[in-house]
Write a structure and sequence with these properties.
Elements lengths: L20 E5 L4 H12 L4 E6 L2 H12 L12 E6 L5 H14 L5 E4 L17 H28 L3 E6 L20 H6 L9 H19 L5 E6 L14 H14 L3 H6 L1
Parallel strand pairs: 1-2, 1-4, 2-3, 4-5, 5-6
Helix pairs in contact: 3-4, 4-6
């Protein structure tokens, strides 16, 4: 891993998101919040902040609406907050159902929500929590909202976008040392707490995202939906908040040395 990260180019001039409706998960802080802000600067008509905490989402929405970078906009964008808990399949289904009921077009779905824990935890849906939040629920949400993305593409006459926030750290996954057994599924493998490696589970989850995106992209026409998986690199956010103190201290030093500013990370 190089100490210095390559610079991220500025957003090309002339790009506009006029009339577009966009959903960003994990949008109350970090990269998700910054991307939502940049979408608004590019004149998106409606940005939906999909968040676990409505209270934090409302705070983020107010901050965005008052942000100085939006002062020059001719039209006031619509900023909505909707609840979705990626820890729980039931919440994901409820969110998708609400989207289908209340939104007639979806141009961009950015699946940014994610977590990282050092110790094994079980999600509300009964699976290992990092894999649940980072992979299972994001994959489910993508499939549930894919029909709306496709119908929007037909309506607009141009493809919609389905984007996952991945990570190059997927190369550090555990499957090389601990491969799947013949009798187990991927879900069974990662739900087994004896196979949990706290330092590597985030990487495992991003590997699963990459595999899912590759398979989905082969099954969805790029004329309707462009499916991609980006890595923003190391970005200066509070993503390490759930790590033990010694790890937060270490990661804090590393991020100060090499992390991109969140605005640069958001542009990826």
């Amino acid at each position: 891993m190089p100490i210095i990260q390559m610079p991220i180019s500025d957003t090309p001039k002339g790009i506009t998101l006029k009339g577009k409706t966009i959903i960003v998960t994990g949008a109350n802080a970090g990269i998700g919040f910054e991307v939502a802000r940049q979408y608004l600067v590019l004149e998106a008509a409606r940005v939906i902040l999909a968040v676990r905490s409505i209270e934090k989402g409302e705070v983020a929405a107010r901050f965005l609406s008052e942000h100085h970078s939006l002062e020059k906009l001719v039209h006031t964008p619509e900023i909505n907050v909707m609840q979705v808990d990626l820890d729980d399949f039931n919440s994901v289904h409820a969110f998708a159902q609400r989207v289908h009921q209340e939104i007639d077009a979806l141009d961009i779905l950015l699946l940014n929500g994610g977590v990282n824990f050092m110790h094994y935890e079980t999600s509300a849906s009964g699976h290992e929590r990092v894999m649940q939040v980072n992979y299972h629920s994001n994959a489910l949400l993508a499939l549930l909202l894919l029909p709306l993305l496709e119908s929007t593409a037909i309506k607009r006459g141009q493809p919609s976008r389905l984007t996952f926030v991945g990570s190059e750290t997927m190369r550090m996954h555990t499957l090389k040392k601990n491969p799947l057994l013949d009798h187990e599924t991927v879900t069974q493998h990662f739900d087994d707490n004896t196979k949990y490696a706290g330092m590597m589970r985030y990487s495992d989850s991003k590997l699963m995202i990459a595999a899912f995106v590759q398979e989905l992209a082969e099954r969805v026409s790029p004329d309707k939906v462009i499916v991609n998986n980006l890595c923003p690199g190391m970005v200066a956010t509070d993503f390490d908040q759930h790590l033990p103190l010694y790890m937060k201290t270490f990661m804090g030093i590393v991020r100060r040395l090499r992390a991109r500013h969140v605005e640069d990370g958001g542009r990826t």
